[in-house]
Specification:
The chain has 375 residues and is mainly beta. It has one domain: Immunoglobulin-like (Sandwich), CATH 2.60.40. Strands 3, 4, 5, 6, 7, 8, 11, 12, 15, 16, 17 and 21 form a twelve-stranded mixed sheet that branches. The longest helix has 16 residues. The radius of gyration is 21 Å and the shape is globular.
Length: 375
């Protein structure tokens, strides 16, 4: 068992400090028989948190729940980007991972008032005409340590890259599990002396250990570079949309998957990833979803239902985020989606959280299934 409750407890402190631009994470956690953590008190040089001490974080094994060292934290990068092979701990979901390569996306943050230039206007019918500035932001394609997947309770499923089957069944979807997209600020870098610090079946196919290389000591194999080039259309992240309503922030990332023919018509597919984050202190629960889906063919579809992907997640100070992925298909090469989540407070009252409008755009060239991976 790798992420578990003890490490999540540490993460709450790690997240607070990293988001306040901590320059260095110092000290070592010691484990004693009373399941308590003895922590020398050192102050973060940036945010001044005196109870922020961890450089070495621990993992536990299921049979005896014995903690073992995993690595040593490094200073987060506030300028530039992380290299291929960088080990990290996800600041929100707590899993271990490793960076494969970066993506440069356009982040449309509706919480920021934009100037007149470099802005995007809401699509027709979205009950608003707010223009949103797009800002270049770095995301990373990463591998998730499979040991941590069962313990990421704030996710509806282990994240995967889904793609269309290359045959007549236009509804058949396949997935490469354990791949995720991580924002630059969600990365808490660390280093490890292990030659295989991440357990994932693609780790040794994509990366190799080179002790002569400065940190990180992992470098891309030719197979990773070839796989990225061949599957760039499937993997590319272009637009990210974000909006906050009453301290609940919703982030949407859409991906175009391709087109298939079905019953003498073309069906275009997209997947989209949504993260909900509780930025306040009040405990709330997602109860309902309300989607509006507009197709270039002129159709407008309304979708209502309980929860999301069969769950009604609770967002609290201890577990402030929930993330899930879903899919949508249109019989047109483009469209728009927008909507709301109905959120319930502990006193039974409700409020609606806006899902930022986002475009569903198809690429000109159709796509073939991912190459360089055996299914």
């Amino acid at each position: 068992m790798a992420a578990c409750a003890i490490r999540r407890g540490l993460l709450s402190t790690v997240s607070k400090c990293s988001k306040k631009r901590a320059h260095r994470i110092l000290s070592v956690i010691k484990y004693n028989s009373g399941l308590e953590l003895n922590r020398p008190r050192l102050q973060c040089s940036s945010c001044g948190l005196s109870n922020f001490q961890q450089t070495r974080f621990m993992s536990s094994r299921p049979e005896g729940k014995v903690l073992e060292p995993v690595g040593v934290f490094e200073a987060p990068k506030h300028h530039g980007k992380y290299e291929t092979g960088q080990l990290f701990l996800h600041s929100v979901f707590g899993y271990r991972g490793i960076v494969l390569f970066p993506w440069h996306a356009r982040l449309y943050d509706r919480d920021v008032t934009p100037p007149s230039s470099e802005s995007k206007q809401d699509p027709p019918g979205t009950n608003g005409s707010k223009e949103v500035k797009g800002k270049t932001h770095t995301y990373y394609q990463v591998l998730i340590d499979t040991r941590d997947c069962p313990h990421i309770s704030q996710r509806s499923q282990t994240e995967a890259v889904t793609f269309l089957a290359n045959h007549d069944d236009s509804r058949a979807l396949y997935a490469i599990p354990g791949l995720d997209y991580v924002s630059h600020e969600d990365i808490l870098p660390y280093n490890s002396a292990e030659q295989v610090p991440i357990q994932h079946e693609l780790f040794e196919r994509f990366l190799m250990y080179k002790p002569s290389k400065s940190n990180p000591p992992f470098t891309a194999r030719d197979t990773l570079q070839a796989w990225q080039e061949k599957n760039h259309p499937w993997l590319e992240l272009s637009d990210v949309h974000r909006e906050t309503t009453e301290n609940i922030r919703v982030t949407v990332i859409p991906f175009y998957m391709g087109m298939r023919e079905a019953q003498n018509s073309h069906v275009y597919w997209w997947r989209y990833c949504i993260r909900l984050e509780n930025m306040g202190n009040e405990v709330v629960q997602l109860r309902e979803r309300h989607w509006r889906i507009f197709s270039l063919s002129g159709t407008l579809e309304t979708v209502r239902g309980r929860g999301v992907v069969g769950r009604e997640p609770v967002l609290s100070k201890e577990q402030p985020a929930f993330q899930y992925s879903s899919h949508v298909s249109l019989q047109a090469p483009s469209g728009h989606m927008w909507g709301t989540f109905r959120i319930e407070r502990t006193d039974g009252s409700h409020f609606d959280v806006r899902i930022p409008p986002f475009s569903l755009e198809s690429n000109k060239d159709d796509k073939a299934p991912p190459a360089g991976y055996s299914f």
